[in-house]
Amino acid sequence: MAKQKGFIKLKGSLGGLTFYQSDGKDIVRTTGGVDKSRIEKDAAFKRTRENMKEFGASATVGKALRQGFASIIKKAKDTTIVGRITGIMKRINTLGTGVRGERAFEILTNKIILEGFEFNKTLPLESVFYAPFSAPILDANRSVATWVVPDFNASDYLNLPEGATHFKLVLATTVLSNYVYNTSIKKYEPTNVAENETNGFTYSAEIPITGEVGSDTTLIVDLGFAAALPATVGVVSAIGIVFYQEINGLFYELSSGNAIKIITIG
Q1: How far, CA to CA in Å, does 206 sit from each of 66, 167, 203, 209, 241?
Q2: Residues 169, 57: one domain?
Q3: Residue 53's pLDDT is what?
Q4: 202 CB neighbour count, 10 Å cutoff
Q5: Whether 26 and 109 share a structural domain
Q6: What is the per-residue pLDDT for 46?
Q7: 149 with 178, same domain?
Q8: Looking at residue 47, what is its pLDDT?
Q9: pTM (two decimals)
Q10: pLDDT tier, 51 (very low <50, low <70, confident <90, very high otherwise)
Q11: Domain assignment of residue 105, given as a range
Q12: Which residue in 42, 125, 144, 232 has a CA-CA distance of 20 to 30 Å to 198?
């Protein structure tokens, strides 16, 4: 690697050299990399092609999960959430059935890998909301999710962001289908297109951050399925807490201090 000097600054590739900027400096290096057509056809790059297919599919499945939580994900996400979800999907893919490069994404079978995922890894839910509770439960069709939080003292079990006067608990549920490789079109597809990304969410009322809540809090999400869902989909439930500041009778959502995690997959 060398630095460019002089008043003429080049960008791009020329004569086996690549010219570019890095940290405000003009850099020149020899052009590297492998020709795309060689990667696509050369037997020596078979493993590379396999990894590329599965990694691309991991990003696709991760995007489907994010779409299912689109209504709440922005309330508590960090800047690494896309990469972290893609990485988890790659781990699920590694355990899937099929040959390398075409291994399936089996969500329910490998749910333990995804359960416990924090939307913001630097602010885990248990560091913000630590009142006793049990995970949401699903009905027989896996269509209705119910989360019951026993009455608790808000003064004792919350880690508050500055300015917060109230909070809401939130339950969000989405369906994530298995993904399998379709050899005829050479790409991954969801096994259950109609159900995939079906979602719903619900919030509690605004609860003051002083003393006892006063009663159990029950949140219910009904996805609307009349028949039992197949084992080729997972019903992913996330729970969390969102803080508000009351000003003149109006509630303003705070941008910090909120926390959401994937708690269970059924």
Answers
A1: 26, 6, 9, 9, 11
A2: yes
A3: 87
A4: 17
A5: no
A6: 58
A7: yes
A8: 65
A9: 0.84
A10: confident
A11: 36-265
A12: 125
In whole angstroms, what is the distance from residue 55 CA to residue 65 CA? 15
Number of domains in the chain: 2
Q: Do 120 and 18 share a structural domain?
A: no
68 and 11 in one domain? Answer: no
Local confidence band at 45 (pLDDT 50, 70, 90 cut-offs): low
C-alpha dist (Å) from residue 196 to 32, 45, 57, 75: 41, 33, 15, 23
- Do 9 and 119 reside in the same domain of the chain? no
Asked if residue 72 and residue 10 are part of one domain, the reply reads: no
* Per-residue model confidence (pLDDT) at position 1: 44
**What phi, psi does 57 have (nearest 5°)?**
-65, -35
